Amino acid sequence: MQMRLMLLGGGNALGQALIRLGAEEDIGFLAPCPPDKGWDASSLTQLLDDNRPDVVINLAYYFDWFQSSRVDEAALANQERAVERLAELCQHYQLVLLQPSSYRVFDGVRTTAYSEKDEVAPLDARSRALWRIEQTVRALCPRHVLLRFGWLLDDSPNGLLGRFLRRLEQGEKMALADDRRGNPTPVDDAARVMLAVIKQLDCQAPLWGTYHYGGQEAATPLVVAQALYSEACQHRQLSLDCLVPIAHADCDDAADEPQHGVLACKKIFNTFGIKPRAWRTGLPSLLEHYYRHG
Fold first, then answer.
1. What are the transmembrane regions (predicted)?
2. Phi/psi of residue 36, each to 5°?
């Protein structure tokens, strides 16, 4: 690897997965610890002025954007300002910015998979913030790669998977949509994709733009929950009776969550040669890691 890589958010689940995969190929990351109050515009300015990497991978707000059940709008506004400053700095120093985003920028009205060319229509404050961040990165930093991910699953105790497994172990009834669809994406698979993109950028390929990635085989939350239940039973005694099918329209988050959030992954395959990986194959290691460290 010729480029110097800086990873913001190396302590979260996706950052840790990226570091692990990179180490297997002798690819290292400069992963600075964030300030006590987290990264903001001023601390990012100092960081980039002092270090001058070639690529910045911005996972600083990964948990809020992809795993948190709810995010304060004031926090989102601060994060937007920080990413705006980061994009300005990357352009000033001619750095590459690798920035994650989400299927959530779409409203989920259409039943076919969303491509990068489809019009966005975010439903809630977090989704609107992600869309504004995308626009900011495009406008301020031409040397960027925006990666929109599907339903990211990681081993963080308070993430989507962790919250689900706690409720499952407690035997709590969970109503799960059987008519909502998306791409489950284990965090190790997302890290694999990011590393593949970084490796091709290291070859000086100017492949800037927006790309979609999600695990192979679209699924419903109920189907994903049943698959997770089967795998979790290898670690705990659980009851399947607590999983109850429900219509998307009757879900508490129906106004905020796209009913159809499936992403088309043709562009990332045609450009980088990255093939979608079946999400089910990533569940055994994901659950093993969760219970080993939980």
1. none
2. -55, -35
